Amino acid sequence: MNRNVELLSPAGNLEKLKIAFAYGADAVYGGVSHFSLRIRAGKEFTFETFKEGIDYAHARGKKVYATINGFPFNSQIELLKKHIIKMAELEPDAFIVAAPGVVKLCRELAPQIDIHLSTQANVLNYLDAQVFWDMGVKRIIVAREISLKDVQEIKKHLPDMEIEIFVHGSMCFAYSGRCLISAVQMGRVPNRGSCANDCRFQYTLYAANEDHGTLFRLEEEPGVGTYIFNSKDMNLASHIKEILDSGAVDSVKIEGRTKSPYYAGVTAYAYRQAIDDYFEDKFEADKYQRELHTTKNRGFTDAYLIHRPFEKTDSQNHDYALSKGSYEVSGLVTEDEKHFYCKYKIYPHDEIEIFAPLNSTIEECDNELGKIYQKENGKFYISFNKILTETAKELESVHSGNTNKIQLPGKLPYLTMLRVEIDEKDCCSFE
Asked: Same domain, yes or no, for 363 and 292?
């Protein structure tokens, strides 16, 4: 039994990197915008802040994998060479690469950096895995469309190769990234890291008669919708036991190219518990699902790892494309653990749930500012009698546009989130 199964989370910026680690991730993946499929999220990382994140991770015994998984044109190869050398100087734990030529280039220019093959390479069998293993690839991030049986077959043929699978996050309508809808309609190429998510759009359907040029608009049945390409989000938390029982998986990966800090925290928290509970023989799927359903999503599906595509009838969401969620993040605790930044809105006497990093210790208190208390459900809450800024200015309420630090009635762990349950129709800047 492999007790060293890695939990790998997305890190779109330095804050999300720290949150992922605080809530249970063993490693994160991210990158600057150059030559990465995380080009939009990657813009939040500079070379300097990415290096800071790597150093932060290594100081805590964690890992960072750098994405260089775009598909370059001939005109970019010289720039790519310089980029590989510069990224290697930051000392990440591995490069995530998709194109065979880029794999070869990384081995030549930065042989000290491990290579992980991106899911964009769509590896589904041990023959393809063998080719990349022979090229020096240490880990295969298999295609999202693979079955668990095929994962086991690859591991059987290549026992020393690490295998990483996606367990949560957005799904492509096509084989991961092998889609041109965005390129045709918006001029934004998915395999260049700039997908416009055209598959999430609502479409109007027409029927044409070429003989006499008649065009009919097709009316949809109420409730059916016209989100014809829109995939539900992957959620395999309930299948972690089957995945780990297989003995073939070395790393479980959460998708999150452009997701929120709250998503980074909740998904790491839920899957960390699922993995740890599995090894302690107390796996409880409903517990993890309750947390995961608080995040915005397009509806969940267990995708293709457990069931073949032709066995599925629930992988598409034809009703809506905007993510739904049941919780809003009201605040994020600062590094001094005495203040928070408002991310939504807070009024005096609101009851706000405390969502703290894994294995945190929270002390109850009751004073002039407010109170921190635990309820019968085992959860901790906070309520404010007064809302005071760091400089003791009293406010009637505080909203996300206010950038002042707000005083807490007692200390809370760094990166703790304050959250409230909301109507699903509401939205938020933090989520």
From this structure: no
Q: Over the stretch 370-400, which tens digit does the pLDDT of each residue have? A: 999 999 999 999 999 999 999 999 999 999 9
**In a shared domain, residues 264 and 346:** no
What are 192-248's pLDDT values in tens digits? 556 767 777 777 777 888 888 888 776 666 655 577 777 889 999 999 999 999 999
Boundaries of domain holding 404: 327-421
Contact 107, 115 (CB under 8 A): yes
pLDDT for res 41: 46
307-343 burial, b for 16+ CB within 10 Å, e for fewer?
beeeeeeebbbeeebebebebbbbbbbbeeeebbbbb
Three-point CA angle 303, 308, 309, nearest 5°? 65
For 285-314, how does the pLDDT look when each residue is reduced to its tens digit (9 = 90+)? Answer: 999 999 999 999 888 988 888 876 556 566
Tokens standing for 351?
């009851």
Regarding pTM above 0.85, the answer is: yes
Q: Could you give the CA distance from residue 228 to residue 188 in angstroms, rounded to a whole number?
A: 20
Which one-letter amino acid corresponds to residue 13?
N
Looking at the fold, whether 275 and 338 belong to one and the same domain comes out as no
* 8 Å CB contact between 164 and 275: no
- Name the nearest CA neighbour of 32 among 74, 71, 76, 70: 70
Q: Are 300 and 331 found together in one domain?
A: no
